[in-house]
Amino acid sequence: MSKLSEQREDQVNPKTGPRWLWIVLVLVVLGLAWGGYDYFFYRNASTLDGFAKCLKSKGAQMYGAWWCPHCADQKEEFGYAFQYVNYVECGEEGKPHTENAQCKQAGIKNFPTWQFADGSRTEGVLPLAQLGEKTGCKLP
Questions:
Q1: Dist. CA 65–CA 97, nearest whole Å
Q2: Does residue 8 sit within a domain?
Q3: I need a labelling partner for 111 at 20 to 30 A (CA). Which of 9, 54, 104, 120 fits?
Q4: How are beta strands 61-64 and 87-89 bridged, if at all?
Q5: Do residues 139 and 132 make contact, with C-beta atoms less than 8 angstroms apart?
Q6: What is the CATH number of the domain that holds 78?
Q7: C-alpha distances in angstroms, 132 versus 26, 116, 140?
């Protein structure tokens, strides 16, 4: 084969490297993208950490149940910072629409229910601003 033929063949079929290398590269990029999304979406919501800790220190307590969609909505408002909220799980594991003895004894009828240090209660999903007003905690 002449040099001209080799040059034409290289132009028609350029060497792109091993295919497995491209697959690994794509997987690494996807992994980094997913990790960045997880970090910035969930961990970035931790700007509410101080607010959630303040609610706890002011005696605010949320009663909820694992099967309750409104409780899930309230938890979602806090994002990653919900771990700092004083939360009482009222649902019995594996039994939807049931309430444990602790919550029955506390007189919890609906979910979510917020109980405050002064003994007052509010039922339903509360906006963070309203929780802040009730407790004196400031939103970031």
A1: 8
A2: no
A3: 54
A4: parallel
A5: yes
A6: 3.40.30.10
A7: 45, 11, 11
**Which pLDDT belongs to residue 31?**
86
Q: What is the pLDDT of residues 10-21, one digit of tens each?
A: 565 556 667 888
Q: Are 123 and 65 in contact (CB under 8 A)?
A: no
Helix 128-135 × helix 49-57 angle, to 10°: 40
Domain count, the chain: 1
pTM for this structure? 0.68
SS3 of the chain: the string is CCHHHHHHHHHHCCCCCCHHHHHHHHHHHHHHHHHHHHHHHHHHHHHHHHHHHHHHHCCCEEEECCCCHHHHHHHHHHHHHHHHCCEEECCECCECCCCCHHHHHHCCCCCCEEECCCCCEEECCCCHHHHHHHHCCCCC
Each residue of 40-59: pLDDT tens digit? 666 554 789 999 999 999 99
